[in-house]
Fold:
Amino acid sequence: VLTDPTQMCGPILAELLSIPSVYFLRGLPCGMDSDATQCPSPLSYVPRLFVNNSDNMTFTQRVKNVLVRMLEFVYCKPFFAPFEELADEFFQNQVTAMDLLSRGSIWLMRYDFVFEFPRPVMPNMVFIGGINCDQKK
Structure:
């Protein structure tokens, strides 16, 4: 199943049919893409989404990065809760969004590694930059 994992219907369908899932995405909220693939993501090195830090952070930026990470637990749970309820209905047991996402076969990342901050990735994560490019006027 080729799907965008932000809407969890594709991962649920792939798991229900026991077929591989290929995720096509720009990034997941709360850094779930690196968590689901078990990429190392140290808070002192990898900046969180929306903090506008680089990989070279000062101490205060690192503290801000940790605080943003703690807030992600609060605002991400309601985002994925409806999908987790839907998965619970289909599978008749407790399934989290992280469980479903961790079963992805290939992650097609729609950004270019050159333009993003350096971070560790797993072998099943493939960068396909240039998909979102638009010609300047």
